[in-house]
UniProtKB/TrEMBL annotation:
The keyword Oxidoreductase applies. SUPFAM superfamilies: Flavoproteins (SSF52218). Pfam families: FMN_red (PF03358). This is NADH-dependent FMN reductase. It comes from Lysinibacillus odysseyi 34hs-1 = NBRC 100172. It comes from the Bacteria. Keywords: Flavoprotein, FMN, Oxidoreductase. The keyword Oxidoreductase applies.
Length: 184
């Protein structure tokens, strides 16, 4: 199974650091999963405005369509997910993520911003009919050292649990019949 770990921002390094840690925990649990991190900061983004998509956006959409599961990492800016992440969701065909496992990790500047993941990102993934894990992990700047290493043991335990549940969701999703993306 191909698992796409999505660093849904072009700013900062904390979401990428969290994804790298989750990637290691998942790899420890299931070596059969093909794990790839997609860093939005490496892409030339384009607003969805009806003009032809550039090569980076075409490649991004293809990676979403070909993946069998997702870990989404989002920082919280101005009490919202980043515009590039929402814009990416707007480009993806509605059935591309259907019945595929999806987990959420996030990072923000206040402890209250964890609700953004619950109230903005989860509903988007529900719209796509992803198999959204019931647990997500929210991190704060206090959980990292100066080099963006996670130093909080509770966060490590929660990320390990998220990886364990995600690996189980991947196994469960194999039994679900996937509809072709273009099926009605």
């Amino acid at each position: 199974m191909k698992i796409l770990l999505v660093d849904g921002t072009v700013f900062g390094r904390k979401t990428g650091a969290v994804l790298q840690q989750v990637q290691r925990y998942i790899a420890d649990l299931n070596t059969d999963l093909e794990l790839e991190i997609l860093y939005f900061s490496d892409l030339k983004h384009q607003i969805l405005d009806g003009s032809p998509l550039n090569d980076d956006m075409k490649m991004m959409i293809q990676k979403f369509e070909e993946a069998d599961g997702y870990i989404f990492a989002s920082p919280i800016f101005q009490a919202s997910i980043p515009g590039v992440l929402k814009n990416a969701f707007d480009m993806i065909p509605p059935k591309a993520l259907r019945y595929k496992p999806a987990a959420i990790v996030g990072n923000g500047g206040t402890y209250q911003h964890h609700l953004v993941l619950e109230n903005q990102l989860k509903p988007i993934l529900d719209y796509f009919r992803c198999l959204v894990l019931p647990n997500y992990v929210y991190t704060h700047a206090d959980h990292f050292d100066a080099e963006n290493n996670i130093v909080d043991e509770e966060i490590h335990m929660r990320l390990k649990e998220l990886a364990r549940v995600f690996a189980q969701y991947c196994e469960m999703s194999k039994a679900l019949k996937q509809e072709p993306v273009n099926a009605q």
